[in-house]
């Protein structure tokens, strides 16, 4: 939002605040070009109200986070499939263009050296709730592509790979904010499995301008673009780096997947993007280092804790 508002755009956000927090909008609430609607994307009237008059729509609302998906598979399926259909219909009816946020999860267990947009999807059993998010996002992409082919909807898809930044919560399964919170609190950093699974983390400050640029390029319509970090790291090394960088006294505790999630949980061992297509289209070149990402998220968490502490003190004083 900040990015679009600073470019002079008028921005309307619709969010049901299920996992999002109004507090995250503190810098934009009150801005003369910003409007917030508390509403659900399953509610067609609310979505139509938000989309009316817009020329560009960014569809980011979703049930996200492994914990949430595993514990509430129905919510994930309904929001992520039916909600997207509601958004697609509304955007089409209003003559706007659409940017759809998809995910690297759709590649599933494909551990290729660098996943390009045509890579195969290797998903586990349809009866394992862990895969409902990937399955739903795959359907979203297929829907978006069909709206483009059959109705000419101007829609581009981005597949995000572990995007991290300030104001992100670790409550629903995001690893970086969770490990940083544990390190700052002096608690053990919980690493699932053997910790040798790898990811490529990217910074929200690199991803947002790329998404915005992709949404402006007509040749992106009907296509999908990977957007991820360029540095592969195991979760164990990530935890060690967080401890070192933040000067934390914490140690590392390995937690079996069965304990962290449910029996039979399957992780992806590796997920490395080929960003070539987005680089070619919009010059995507993520620059923020992992150390910088860790520092920024830690600084944000520290200031939230201090603000929370101040609030408690002033409430106690009242
Ligand atoms: N952050 C990542 O690493 C990552 C990776 C891959 C894909 N994505 C995708 O990017 C998008 C944004 O993710 P994020 O990381 O910013 O997560 P986020 O939780 O910050 O944003 C999702 C928002 O959707 C809202 N929401 C959920 N259900 C809703 C509903 N039914 N109606 C209205 N609002 C609803 C939540 O309240 C939340 O504010 C999502 O579509 C997600 O699937 C993110």
Would you kindly provide a written description of the structure presented here, covering whatever features stand out?
This protein has 318 residues and is an alpha/beta fold. It has a single domain (2-313), classed as Rossmann fold. The chain is 43% helix and 15% strand. It contains eleven helices and twelve strands. The strands form five sheets. It has a four-stranded parallel beta sheet, sandwiched between helices. Helix 5 links the parallel strand 4 and strand 5 (155-160). Helix 2 (44-51) packs across helix 4 and helix 4 (73-94) packs parallel to helix 5. The longest helix is centred in the C-terminal third of the chain and has 28 residues, at 290-317. The two termini are 35 Å apart. Bound molecules: nicotinamide-adenine-dinucleotide (NAD). The site of nicotinamide-adenine-dinucleotide has 21 residues, from helix 4 and strand 4.
């Amino acid at each position: 939002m900040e990015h679009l508002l600073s470019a002079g755009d008028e921005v309307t956000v619709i969010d049901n605040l299920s996992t999002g927090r109004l507090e995250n909008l503190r810098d934009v609430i009150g801005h003369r070009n910003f409007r917030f609607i508390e509403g659900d994307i399953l509610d067609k009237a609310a979505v139509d109200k938000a989309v009316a008059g817009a020329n560009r729509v960014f569809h980011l609302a979703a049930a996200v986070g492994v914990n949430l998906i595993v514990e509430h598979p129905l919510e994930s399926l309904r929001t992520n499939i039916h909600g997207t259909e509601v958004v697609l219909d509304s955007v089409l009816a209003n003559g706007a263009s659409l940017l759809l946020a998809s995910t690297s999860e759709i590649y599933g267990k494909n551990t290729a050296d660098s996943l390009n947009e045509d890579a195969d999807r290797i998903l586990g059993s349809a009866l394992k709730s862990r895969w409902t998010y990937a399955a739903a996002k795959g359907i979203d992409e297929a829907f978006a592509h069909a709206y483009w082919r059959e109705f000419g909807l101007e829609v581009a898809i981005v597949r995000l790979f572990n995007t991290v930044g300030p104001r992100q919560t670790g409550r629903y399964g995001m690893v970086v904010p969770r490990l940083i919170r544990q390190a700052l609190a002096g608690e053990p950093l919980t690493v699932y499995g053997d910790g040798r699974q790898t990811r490529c983390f990217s910074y929200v400050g690199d991803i947002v301008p790329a998404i915005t640029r992709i949404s402006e390029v007509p040749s992106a319509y009907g296509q999908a673009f990977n957007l991820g970090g360029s540095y592969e790291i195991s979760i164990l090394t990530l935890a060690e780096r967080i401890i070192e960088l933040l000067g934390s006294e914490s140690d590392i505790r390995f937690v079996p997947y069965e304990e962290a999630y449910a029996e039979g949980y399957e992780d992806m061992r590796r997920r490395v993007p080929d960003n070539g297509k987005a680089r070619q289209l919009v010059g995507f070149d993520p620059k923020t280092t992992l150390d910088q990402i860790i520092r920024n998220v830690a600084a944000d968490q520290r200031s939230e804790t201090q603000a929370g502490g101040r609030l408690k003190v002033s409430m106690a004083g009242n």
